[in-house]
Amino acid sequence: MCYFDQTRWTCGFWRWGHFRQQCNKEYRMGETCGLKLVYETKDQPEVCKLCSDVEKKQRRYDKMYRDVQRWQREGNRNATIERTCGEMDEVLGQIYRMQQEHITRLQTLGQRVGCGFWVVQSETTDSPTGHILSYQTRAIYAVLLCSALPRMMAYASFGERTIEQRSTSTPTHVIL
User: Which domain does 95 fall in, by range?
Assistant: First the structure.
């Protein structure tokens, strides 16, 4: 039940920060008991690195989509369109994997996944020559911002239960 700082981003992801206070269960200096509780939460105004990487990939995908649309109107660029559509599929797969990683990280941290969602739409377009192009898929990335951090609880020996809420800066002990 040692206390640590916490960093929380607007997308809901958070990580442990520096050690702040030692609990009574651990008597050795510099050692922790292994149970982590929040001492202070530092809110970051931006999204986490994973979300910003997804946004970069989404911008790249959108540019490729616009290029393919333009090339279809111009005509006579079938090889370029085919190559770009293959790259679009790869980028879309990378976006999907990164979103799944973010969801998995939120789930393993005990947060509700209902706070963020991703919607993927797909449509198939025929080329002027009659060949079906690869997927012209547009991924729509939307994140709802909410406070997804529940109360942190830890149980120690002798029936003591420690409760720490994310908004407090001093620990709260409740002895049962």
Answer: 49-143
Give the chain's domain count: 2
Same domain, 67 and 139: yes
Kindly state the tokens that stand for 124. Answer: 């198939």
pLDDT band at 109 (very low <50, low <70, confident <90, very high): low
d(CA 88, CA 92): 6
Task: Give the residue among 175, 171, 174 at the shortest CA–CA distance from 22.
Answer: 171
C-alpha dihedral (170, 172, 173, 176), degrees to nearest 10: 180
What's the whole-model pTM score? 0.54
pLDDT in tens, 22-41: 777 767 777 777 778 888 88
Shared-domain flag, residues 138 and 112: yes
The region, left, alpha or beta by phi > 0 then psi within -120 to 50, assigned to residue 144 is beta
